[in-house]
Write a structure and sequence with these properties.
Layout (H helix, E strand, L loop, with lengths): L3 H12 L4 H17 L12 E5 L4 H10 L8 E3 L6 E6 L5 E6 L2 H9 L6 H11 L2 H4 E6 L16 E2 L6 E2 L5 E3 L2 E3 L14
Parallel strand pairs: 1-2
Antiparallel strand pairs: 1-3, 3-4, 4-5, 6-7, 8-9
């Protein structure tokens, strides 16, 4: 495993800047990997891990950099819950651990470094220094992953009866005997412009 400084450098390059969220995300992922005993997520252990992230902010980019998990590899799963949290699943052992950033870490950063006026700089330094138990709540959890959620899954591709677009990984909606995509089933996040 790379050092904290090396991982922060990698995260900064991937994300475009270094901020408190990046430091928190790097430490979050380092701790998750440590708890699962995964020491080479980019090498020999690269197919062992699936990570669920619960926010679409800076920390998530850092988690992806440290773990090597990516959406396109089907190893990074996004749940839009608005929490600086991640669940790390070891496919080899079946063990999983969820870590969530503690709100108290912000107050600890202020207490540790009152000499730093900038809140981001204050948190960046404190998040590097604080022990894991001051930064994160840790919980061992069970995560059930059906085959269609796993990397490498080769499922049937269906076609939406209304729009004709392909649907992968059993994400279709069946309604009144028709196979529909989520958009045609009324779950659009966009509105077509005529």
């Amino acid at each position: 495993m790379k050092s904290l400084d090396e991982l922060l450098h990698d995260a900064e390059r991937a994300h475009g800047h270094l901020c408190a969220g990046q430091v928190l995300g790097v430490r979050l992922a380092m701790r998750g990997l440590e708890l699962l005993g995964i020491d080479d997520p980019h090498g020999k252990d690269r197919k062992r891990l699936i990570t669920f992230v619960e926010i679409d902010r800076c920390a998530t980019d850092a988690v992806a950099v440290v773990t090597g998990c990516r959406l396109g590899k089907r190893a990074l799963k996004f749940r839009d819950w608005g929490k600086v949290a991640a669940t790390f699943v070891d496919l080899q052992s079946g063990r999983a651990v969820r870590l969530c950033a503690k709100e108290s870490s912000k107050a600890l950063a202020r207490q540790m470094h009152p000499e730093i006026a900038d809140k981001n700089q204050q948190q960046m330094l404190a998040y590097r220094e604080l022990p894991y138990d001051a930064l994160f709540a840790e919980q061992w959890v069970k995560v059930v992953l059906p085959p269609e959620e796993l990397p490498g899954y080769q499922g049937e591709r269906l076609v939406c009866a209304d729009c004709g677009e392909g649907i992968n990984f059993q994400r279709e909606v069946r309604r009144n005997g028709k196979v529909l995509c989520h958009a045609c089933a009324g779950e659009r996040y966009y509105e077509p412009i005529p």
